[in-house]
Amino acid sequence: MINVGIIGYGYWGPNVARNFNETPGAKVTAISDPDAGSLARAGQIYPGIRLERNCEGLLTAKNLDVIAIVTPVSSHFEIAKTALLNGKHIFIEKPFTASVSQAEELIELAEQKKLKIMVDHTFLFTGAVKKIKELIDGGVLGDLYYFDSIRVNLGLFQKDVNVVWDLAPHDLSIMDYLIDKEPLAVMATGVAHFNHGLEDVAYITIYFPNNVIAHLNVNWLSPVKIRTTLIGGQKKMLVWNDLVSDEKIRVYDKGVEGMEGTKEQSYGLRVSYRSGDMWAPRVNQVEALKGEAAYFIDCINNNRIPQNDGKAGLRVVRMLEAIINSLKAGGKLVHL
Amino acid sequence: MINVGIIGYGYWGPNVARNFNETPGAKVTAISDPDAGSLARAGQIYPGIRLERNCEGLLTAKNLDVIAIVTPVSSHFEIAKTALLNGKHIFIEKPFTASVSQAEELIELAEQKKLKIMVDHTFLFTGAVKKIKELIDGGVLGDLYYFDSIRVNLGLFQKDVNVVWDLAPHDLSIMDYLIDKEPLAVMATGVAHFNHGLEDVAYITIYFPNNVIAHLNVNWLSPVKIRTTLIGGQKKMLVWNDLVSDEKIRVYDKGVEGMEGTKEQSYGLRVSYRSGDMWAPRVNQVEALKGEAAYFIDCINNNRIPQNDGKAGLRVVRMLEAIINSLKAGGKLVHL
Amino acid sequence: MINVGIIGYGYWGPNVARNFNETPGAKVTAISDPDAGSLARAGQIYPGIRLERNCEGLLTAKNLDVIAIVTPVSSHFEIAKTALLNGKHIFIEKPFTASVSQAEELIELAEQKKLKIMVDHTFLFTGAVKKIKELIDGGVLGDLYYFDSIRVNLGLFQKDVNVVWDLAPHDLSIMDYLIDKEPLAVMATGVAHFNHGLEDVAYITIYFPNNVIAHLNVNWLSPVKIRTTLIGGQKKMLVWNDLVSDEKIRVYDKGVEGMEGTKEQSYGLRVSYRSGDMWAPRVNQVEALKGEAAYFIDCINNNRIPQNDGKAGLRVVRMLEAIINSLKAGGKLVHL
Amino acid sequence: MINVGIIGYGYWGPNVARNFNETPGAKVTAISDPDAGSLARAGQIYPGIRLERNCEGLLTAKNLDVIAIVTPVSSHFEIAKTALLNGKHIFIEKPFTASVSQAEELIELAEQKKLKIMVDHTFLFTGAVKKIKELIDGGVLGDLYYFDSIRVNLGLFQKDVNVVWDLAPHDLSIMDYLIDKEPLAVMATGVAHFNHGLEDVAYITIYFPNNVIAHLNVNWLSPVKIRTTLIGGQKKMLVWNDLVSDEKIRVYDKGVEGMEGTKEQSYGLRVSYRSGDMWAPRVNQVEALKGEAAYFIDCINNNRIPQNDGKAGLRVVRMLEAIINSLKAGGKLVHL
Q: Which residues form the GFO/IDH/MocA-like oxidoreductase domain (chains A, B, C, D) (predicted)?
């Protein structure tokens, strides 16, 4: 039995706790949160477990195997480091850390201690992302051309992070998983409309090898909620709309192929088009976090490396850092 | 009666001809096109008018008052210049010219000759854009925050221009009209996936004074056609979907206002949100080109300056030139 | 403090229990369900309360003021009658009873005993239905022309009721509330495609005074889920789509007015059309059952008659009975 | 060369004329319309052809092989009969005639004279209906369960026909083509809200053998335009939305199958569900009338019987007559 301690029981923590607790072979035995009301709610659902306002006790507790860190990113490094030093595997909210160097230090520490890190890139465990991954890896889309994502809605503004740190980690972790290539460079533009000086609208371009381009549109000031990703490939193209309950993924048998054409007409085309059926594969409707929790327990029990390990977390943080640097430098191209 | 000569009778020319011909006080009396088939079609509809494969005759014809230039942009300057030198008002396809200097020369020439130039920014004459203009100028939206437009579809690839020259002039002319401010700088990223080296995917940011930001997403490789513009203002926000027949414009009584808040909670908010009704004003379904043709004839008869005059055309070309320069320089910020 | 006993803790019972328990001034103190697993789940959430597999104990328990009956309709009458005889107010699932005579008997019994009956017409407490009611009662729509509802999806087939008993009570209770007139007659057509002989597709017309017509389309064999209601009025018309999260209700400033026209053209019109803006009023997103539970407690404490009382339940059952009779008689018009 | 005379050049006539004129082997050589303006428009497009305000001349003209009758239904019979008596093939607007007996007389007359009748059931020649026919005939949907169509919009009210005669012929002809079975009975309900006494809202049920049920919802008082048909089959189900430009047809791998189940649980299911992918086959975007005109010319030249011959027209008129009878008799079941 793997004993899990939860640090942070605010908005997302209850979901993490519930899913680990329901995973066969795991049990939530301790929860900490500085807020008394949050702790009381935890106590109602998990009567009899250890509840503390301070997280230190959990980090050093003998009987905990896993620490799930569900706190703001600014506190991630210290908590994670202490947990690793005390021999705990860690499950940690995204973004992994506030900087590349922090991420690197934690990864190294975990390797020394032979401990697992899993960064909570929850979307990788949704039916939609799994299906898209399957389509890409199975060659259905062919070579990729672009990955274009829109993630906009009204707020929530946060005190200490801009819209990039808030919304982009979702897309960056999904993109990292699906494209599965090291990005070459990033460039970002954006604006802060309010007095706290944090961007609320931002546009991010990410260059990959082989002319693959990714673009993220993140916006806290949109009147409508949009969660749409277009992925263009040589063979097929797809649209993923995460806000519809059915037919989230539409695969279009549409495409363009370059031709050797030399004809010099006014509006001459050097490409040929293909426009065929559309197909919406059935997507399993599972609770992503449930699968993720079970997967982490399995990785620990069988000593496997999670796909969303510290290195995956680091890749996302590295992009975030470069995006922020590009924004600060007025949209400069930042090589990775 | 104002006599109009049409140069270019391919895809768009027939619409220009028809609308000028149906405008009271105007008459199409000559059409030229190098293609014999196009000329024959013109002859069927306008029996008895002058038809020529070469445009020179029209440019010097005594009895023509207006020359409508509906040819590829590369030929605009020479044709327009000759027309102006021969004392003709010109109606010219967008983009106005292939370069800023060409546009400036034509504007100066027209001023000397006291002739009108109207650049065919057709969208300004649609019910949708007129309604949005009315909402902005009437203060309904309040101060603008952003203008975010997506114009993507599958092809058509063109031989000599990239996706920016093909699709962005629409958005740039609309944006120029609606925002009505001089842009400060542009930045663009993009990729060419085919061997002709012309970008088929591009992302453009345009900075305006007062933190207004505009962004255009243009893509020839999208499986779905999207024509959506989000405009965020301090008081209201709107979404314009040009592909639906009804309710093209939705105005949301949603917004965010900055507060002086100093509270330092973990996820503290320093803004307040407003979320109310949505309202879709009725949009007149008029043929934009019909209104535009009538407006041009009126500007000539009453010696008025068209809103979409040479200077408006120049502003769009100046942005296009800067966007191309930014793309060529790997996404450099180009000041205007 | 009002003590509530819940009878039936299957699919919907847990929601009823939770909402009554969270209502100030009320408390769930007993739950019965024949299924041991259901009882165990109840025990986890309400530790220490009375749990019984048989409902009789609850019906005669001294310390219970309200019995919530969340069981299949076939058992409603016996349970409700016993509860009333034992002096309990009853909250009862829709449809109220399996027959008109049962409903009438319960209403009479409750009146004698001065007890309240509330039939769980949950939809009446949604933000959408409340808003529509407000629009109709406020005269915004003008005189009603029609009420046209579609409620279709794939299954779930039930053992002992047809699609009418399963799906139509929702629409009938909403319609009864909104139109607020006694229907004159019903007529229904339908088919049973499977061997249990219960209709899985049915179409119901209901005639009201003043030429108001209602129509319900209920179908267990639809590949897509549709929950759309059109309501036409003299002044405005509205569309309610319950499956979208935003803009559930759209009010159209569209209409037709009869004219005295005598002109005898081939396709002459004797009506005039009006086509204006569309407006989507903000709809409160509340948990309907929460408001309903609080309303019932308030009705008991302040001796008010619930709008969804036994008589409302009876009106729905009377229509159901007539619809079934019409179906059985091959679509005969059944007067009410 | 087959010479075609067009009778009626109002709203639809110009389309019929243009398509016959563009069909290889056919030529429009005469047009009649009582309205001088309509005739003038015809003259502009077909300079030099015979134009008459009265149709008699055309009906007896030696050099006409086909008469296309594009007039209100009330005039169909007389014109068609005269045309047939004068040895002309006829192409005639739907609905074929104003009564069953008229249709029967025309069919008999055409048979005697060895002439063709084609009733303009245009929808049968759309890419969408052809694709659905292919799916049904190819067994993709399996045995049909139901055909459920909604055709609603605001107006246009007509002087002498109700909403059934105006809108239902579309659905009836499509249904007749797709289901390809003789209906057993019809039943209709509806209401007239304006003083001319013609129904503006109607609901029609049509019973076919083997428990196939069809339902049509036609309404002139809807704030939104809807053109949606659901077709349920044993193997697959489809939704046809004619108002979208792409993905008009969606085929769902969803279904229900009856089982022998005897289990007597409270909410026991006796069916099994299947829920899989969705697939939107590419639909050819052709001008239906173009294909239809070519097909008629081909039927004449090669002495083939059109699928939409007089008998198809009669089947539609027979259903219309029965529907009207059912409406008049207050929703009585009318056997066919």
A: 130-232
Of the candidates C66, C105, C58, C102, the one whose C-alpha atom is nearest the C-alpha of residue C87 is: C66
Query: Which one of B70, B93, B147, B187 makes the best mutation probe of the A interface by having the most chain A beta carbons within 10 Å?
Result: B187
What does the DSSP 8-state code read for residue B126?
S
Report the percent of chain A where pLDDT is more than 70.
96
Domain B129-287+318-335 has CATH 3.30.360.10: yes
Q: Under a CB-based contact definition with an 8 Å cutoff, are residues A198 and A218 in contact?
A: no
- Residue C142, strand partner residues: none
Cβ pairs bridging A and B (under 8 Å):
190
3-state SS class at D278: strand
- Contact indicator for D99, D321 with CB cutoff of 8 Å: yes
Q: What pLDDT does residue D218 have?
A: 97
**What sign results for the dihedral spanned by CA atoms D111, D113, D114, D119?**
negative
CATH number at D2-115: 3.40.50.720
| Cβ neighbours of A285 (radius 10 Å) | 11
Look at residue C168 and tell me whether its pLDDT is greater than 70: yes
CB < 8 Å & 24+ apart, contacts of B27-30 = B27/B1, B27/B2, B27/B3, B28/B3, B28/B4, B29/B3, B29/B4, B29/B5, B29/B63, B29/B64, B30/B3, B30/B5, B30/B6, B30/B57, B30/B58, B30/B61, B30/B64
User: What's the one-letter identity of residue B290?
Assistant: K
- Please give, rounded to a whole number of angstroms, the shortest distance from the CA of D16 to a CA of chain B: 19
Task: Round to whole Å and give the CA distance between D286 and D11.
Answer: 20
pLDDT-derived band at A266 (thresholds 50, 70, 90) equals: very low
Straight-line distance from the first to the last Cα atom of chain B, in angstroms, rounded to the nearest whole number: 42
- C271, HSE (Cβ side, Cα atoms, 13 Å): 24
pLDDT at residue A263 is higher than 70: no
Look at the domain C124-286+318-335 and name its fold: Dihydrodipicolinate Reductase; domain 2 (3.30.360)
CA distance A252 to chain D (A): 9
Q: Between the CA of residue D200 and those of B108, D54, D97, D157, D328, what are the distances in Å? A: 62, 33, 21, 8, 14
Buried b (16+ CB within 10 A) or exposed e, A175-188: bbbbbeeebebbbb
Domain ranges of chain B: 2-115, 129-287+318-335
Beta strand B185-191 with B201-207 is: antiparallel
pTM, full prediction:
0.92
The sign one gets for the Cα dihedral A163, A165, A170, A171 is positive
D260 touching A, CB under 8 A? Answer: no
What are φ and ψ of residue C163, in 5° steps? Answer: -65, -25
The pLDDT tens digits of the residues spanning C298-319 come to 999 999 999 999 999 999 999 9
Q: Give, in order, the Cα–Cα distances in Å from D63 to each of B324, D22, D57.
A: 64, 19, 11
CA distance C276 to C255: 9
Interface touch A333/B331, C-beta < 8 Å? yes
Residues of chain D contacting B47 with CB distance shorter than 8 Å: 47
Which residue in the set A154, A156, A157 is minimally distant from B254, CB to CB? A154
> How many angstroms separate the CA of residue D231 from the nearest CA in chain C?
8
pLDDT in tens, B192-216: 998 678 999 999 999 999 999 999 9
| Assembly ipTM | 0.92
Helix or strand holding residue A328 (H, E): helix A310-328
Angle, alpha carbons A244-A250-A255 (nearest 5°): 150
Q: Do domains B2-115 and B129-287+318-335 have the same CATH topology?
A: no
β-pairing verdict for B144-154 and B221-233: antiparallel
Output the DSSP codes for A4-19.
EEEE--SSSHHHHHHH
D124-287+318-335, what's its fold? Dihydrodipicolinate Reductase; domain 2 (3.30.360)
Q: Does D224 touch chain B (CB under 8 A)?
A: yes
